[in-house]
């Protein structure tokens, strides 16, 4: 694929954690692959007073540590020539003068403003960019999650950003959509004819989506304690994945074709309120335990966390989609920090055969399709086959597509993919405003129910699959989590 046209990318929060761990290593990597070309400029801005050389030293370390490929000095020398640093207080309009000078010196380039800051700065940055005359037809803005704290704050942010940028210029990132396996799910569903006739309530018993992490709050204590797992992971990543699994076939891969279908799913989610929400959700918080790497402290012992915190680090819930395709099919969603394994997967559990012709000792197990996003990417179809021997005995077997073995080329990391999509003007893998609103509309009553009627979060030991209540929740509906089967 050819390199992108000349561009300027301004990263607000250019000295922050996301920029150092993900954005700059991703840009380095794409530069190394030849996708970024030589004509780009990356301008990191932040409030810290730093000279260019000191800043470049930190970026160099970050690329060494986090880029996918081996670090090499030649590539770094060429890549670092594209980088610059500017001190700028995002809330002070006069600070935008030097930025404007740099950008307007080379007009007619693609102009990306990446807001890798807290959402409280989104509107002031957009206002200041507008006032400084920096938002031209080639400009686009990337908004990191979380987009607000609830529907009201998300609406406020979206309204104010919309006063400066058109919807087609706004790239709301959900980095899960940039993961190769999520796009593979789209390819699997709509590139193969055999799945679609089975993809409905007549054949599917339940769907499970799990995003389990081994890490804790990773130095983001105060942010996480205000946020919790429902806002941090369910409102965005889990619901976006649910949309990809549940949406009807879009007419094309064009941004609005896909986003219209996702929106229909979000709007069809059955609302959960009050006691109903309490019955269909489990919230929990980890206590001290052990993960593969050793003993880990409990959530309230982590730095920056209030010792009486009631914030959830785990959520499991039963979602239902009120459509002809999905009526009666539970979608179990689950996410947690400090879980036993790092795994992100979608499990489609098919119904049992309508009538078994085999002996009772050897009943056929229902088919299961497992799409794994992390730690490695694979698609597995669990079937039964006859075991060798004189008797007709059935055994589980697996058709296994391991992407690392099938494709020699390693897929791009989610941020590599999404940054390039933004530079190329491709919005398909970014969220449209109405999707974000619809997701908040569904999430908010759950938050309200927890606040009004809820007890303290349940506890689970770090290094487990979450509280027993999570298994009990889905057990009540006659199902079990994938790893328990
Ligand atoms: C982020 C959340 O959006 O996703 C983090 O804010 C979480 O809390 C992260 O750790 C997980 O992403 P990944 O790609 O590591 O699974």
Descriptive labels:
21% strand; Dihydrodipicolinate Reductase, domain 2; Rossmann fold; 2 domains; 485 residues; binds 6-O-phosphono-beta-D-glucopyranose; 35% helix; 14 helices; 9-stranded mixed beta sheet; 17 strands; 6-stranded parallel beta sheet; alpha/beta
How would you summarize what this structure contains?
The protein has 485 residues and is an alpha/beta fold. The protein is built from 14 helices and 17 strands.
Give a written overview of the molecule:
The protein is an alpha/beta fold and 485 residues long. It folds into two domains: 7-144, 3-Layer(aba) Sandwich (Rossmann fold), CATH 3.40.50.720; 177-413 and 433-484, Dihydrodipicolinate Reductase, domain 2. Helix content is 35%, strand content 21%. The protein has 14 helices and 17 strands. The chain has helices at 17-32, 52-66, 73-80, 96-104, 122-131, 151-162, 180-191, 221-246, 255-268, 274-279, 403-406, 414-423, 433-453, 468-475, and strands spanning 7-12, 41-46, 83-87, 110-115, 139-143, 170-172, 204-212, 281-287, 289-291, 294-296, 314-319, 331-336, 343-350, 368-374, 378-386, 394-402, 458-461. Strand 1 (7-12), helix 1 (17-32) and strand 2 form a beta-alpha-beta unit. Helix 1 packs across helix 2, helix 5 packs parallel to helix 6 and helix 8 packs across helix 9 (255-268). The protein is globular. The model has no long low-confidence stretch (mean pLDDT 95).
């Amino acid at each position: 694929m050819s390199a992108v046209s000349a561009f300027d990318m301004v990263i607000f929060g250019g000295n922050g954690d996301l920029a150092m761990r993900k954005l700059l290593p991703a840009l380095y990597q794409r530069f190394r692959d030849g996708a970024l070309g030589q004509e780009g400029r990356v301008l990191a801005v932040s409030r810290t007073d730093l000279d260019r050389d000191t800043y470049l030293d930190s970026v160099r370390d970050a690329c060494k540590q986090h880029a996918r490929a081996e670090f090499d000095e030649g590539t770094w020398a060429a890549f670092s020539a594209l980088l610059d640093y500017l001190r700028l207080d995002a809330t002070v309009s006069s600070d935008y003068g030097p930025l404007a000078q740099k950008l307007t010196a080379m007009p007619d380039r693609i102009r990306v403003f990446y807001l890798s800051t807290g959402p409280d700065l989104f509107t002031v940055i957009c206002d200041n960019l507008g006032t400084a005359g920096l938002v031209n037809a080639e400009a686009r803005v990337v908004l990191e999650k979380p987009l607000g704290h609830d529907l009201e704050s998300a609406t406020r942010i979206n309204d104010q950003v919309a006063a400066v940028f058109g919807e087609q210029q706004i790239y709301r990132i959900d980095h899960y959509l940039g993961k190769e396996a999520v796009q593979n799910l789209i390819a699997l569903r709509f590139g193969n004819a055999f799945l679609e006739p089975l993809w409905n309530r007549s054949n599917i018993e339940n769907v499970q989506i799990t995003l389990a992490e081994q890490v804790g709050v990773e130095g983001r204590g105060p942010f996480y304690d205000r946020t919790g797992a429902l806002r941090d992971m369910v409102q965005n990543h889990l619901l976006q994945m649910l949309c990809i699994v549940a949406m009807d076939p879009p007419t094309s891969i064009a941004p609005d074709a896909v986003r219209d279908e996702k929106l229909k799913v979000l709007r069809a989610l059955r609302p959960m309120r009050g006691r109903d929400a309490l019955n269909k959700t489990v919230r929990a918080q980890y206590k001290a335990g052990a993960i593969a790497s050793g003993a880990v402290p409990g959530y309230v012992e982590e730095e920056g966390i209030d010792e009486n915190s009631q914030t959830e680090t785990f959520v499991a819930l039963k979602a239902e989609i009120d459509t002809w395709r999905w009526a009666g099919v539970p979608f179990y969603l689950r996410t947690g920090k400090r879980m036993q394994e790092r795994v992100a997967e979608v499990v489609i559990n098919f119904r049992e055969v309508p009538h078994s012709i085999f002996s009772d000792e050897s009943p056929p197990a229902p088919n299961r399709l497992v799409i794994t996003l992390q730690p490695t990417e694979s698609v597995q179809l669990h079937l039964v086959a006859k075991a060798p021997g004189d008797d007709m005995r059935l055994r589980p077997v697996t058709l296994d597509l391991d992407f690392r073995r099938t494709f020699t080329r390693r897929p791009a990391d989610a941020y590599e993919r999404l940054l390039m999509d933004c530079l190329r003007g491709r919005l398909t893998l970014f969220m449209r405003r109405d999707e974000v609103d619809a997701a908040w509309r569904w999430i908010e009553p759950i938050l309200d129910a927890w606040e009004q009627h809820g007890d303290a979060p349940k506890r689970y030991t770090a290094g487990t699959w979450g509280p027993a209540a999570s298994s009990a929740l889905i057990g009540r509906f006659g199902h079990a989590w994938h790893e328990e089967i």
